[in-house]
Amino acid sequence: MLSISGLRAQYAIEALNYSQTDLLGSAAYVGRGGAIGALGADFTAASYNPAGLGLFYSSQIAITPSLEWSLTNTDYMGNANSESRSVFSFTNANYLFAFRNDYQSKWKVFQFSAGVNKLRSFNNCSYVQGKPTNTSLLTVWTDEANRNGSLDMFTSLLAKTCNLMNYDSLAGYTNIFGDKVPELVQSRYMIESGGISEMTLSFSGNYDDKLYLGATMGMPFLSYRSSSNYSEQPTMDTTGLDFFNYLECKNINGGGLNLKLGAIYRPIENLRVGFAFHTPTYYEISESYSTTVESRTLLDTEQDKYRNTEASVYGMYDYNFYTPLKLLANAAITFGDMSTKMAGSVSFDYEYTNYRTMHFSGGDDDYMRQVNDEIKNTYCPSHTFRIGGTLNIKKLSLRVGSVYSTDPYKEDMDQEASKM
Questions:
Q1: pLDDT tens-digit profile of 33-64?
Q2: Cα dihedral sign for 132, 138, 142, 144?
């Protein structure tokens, strides 16, 4: 119960982070905006439409290095800031074995492949700063302590140890600012890292160059780490406080399992249509959480400063999570071939995801039931559209693509998270 109280994790928000994917994978996949469902012949297909692996005629290996770069702009109380972070990683590493059949068989080729595709990146960095008046995190902690009649071991208990809060039998819990909060410089620096990478084992086949079938057993691995430092510093020394910092550290690790089935059919030479089905991913997740409060206050009338630091215990929590199932429909039109001077393709992908079906289990059943109810009241089905084009001029390939996802939040929610 202490862990549940102290983690204070917004699990409904984290559910969305666990379930969404980013535009990561091979260079061809990213260049086409992810619209490779019906085109195939790309290793990233193992995590989207595994039937696309059926278009390989020979054994191949592929490794994709990537430089991930994020830029976060913030505006707080009219004060603008920006932070960026770059991380080198491998977004794709796969090997495929192709087995050709006897030329008289309509099953022309079978493929078995194993690899890793990166699905999501959590790497980010942000900085927020502003000079509001009469607002403080200590006020929030004081109100919570008086409302609950007790201190929270991850927040207000640490603040009391660091001489930022006190208790009086008549007035209840109070803080160092009393009834009037002075003008404060507030800031928060946060760095996040990790991601979701999926290990894939796939089997696919090519029937008469007309029908391509594929199946993937996916084993995603989730890793998330965050560290943030929130600070308040009075612009004028009127309360005996020089500054106080609130540090939060979170580590999340998990492993999952899912199944993906796909098919591609070519009714005529230059047209391909595809369909894929993804089962929900079942995750087993472990989370740890800790906080630290640090302050510097007046020691005595000689204006010496006294520094206090108090760290919480580690909150540990294990739980299970289910992502929503996904339905994908694909189409692609091709023109030209290797013998012509110019060739290319135009491809379209559609993906349906009902985020209302995300849910947690394990741990405290009543608590998880409340979180699952919040998920149903917060999210709605989302639609993702991908379009991509490729133009091959001799040995030069030009690619362009775009992906758009509708807002996963309900209309009455004060949030908007569509993505282009």
A1: 999 999 999 999 999 999 999 999 999 999 99
A2: positive
**Is the backbone of residue 377 left (phi > 0), alpha (psi -120 to 50) or beta?**
alpha
Q: What is the CA radius of gyration of the chain?
A: 27
Do residues 205 and 112 lie in contact, with contact meaning Cβ atoms separated by under 8 Å?
no
Q: Strand, helix or coil at 169?
A: coil
Across-strand partners of 381? 354
SS percent in the chain: helix, strand, coil, step 5:
15, 55, 30
- Nearest partner of 254 among 196, 200, 325, 324, judged by Cα: 196
Rounded CA separation 185/284 (Å) = 41
Q: Give dist(CA 200, CA 50) in Å, integer.
A: 10
Q: What is the DSSP letter of 40?
A: -
- pTM, to two decimals: 0.88
DSSP 8-state symbol, 37 = T
Q: Please answer whether residues 92 and 116 qualify as being in contact, where contact means their C-beta atoms are separated by less than 8 angstroms.
A: yes
| β-bridge pairing 326-335 and 282-298 | unpaired
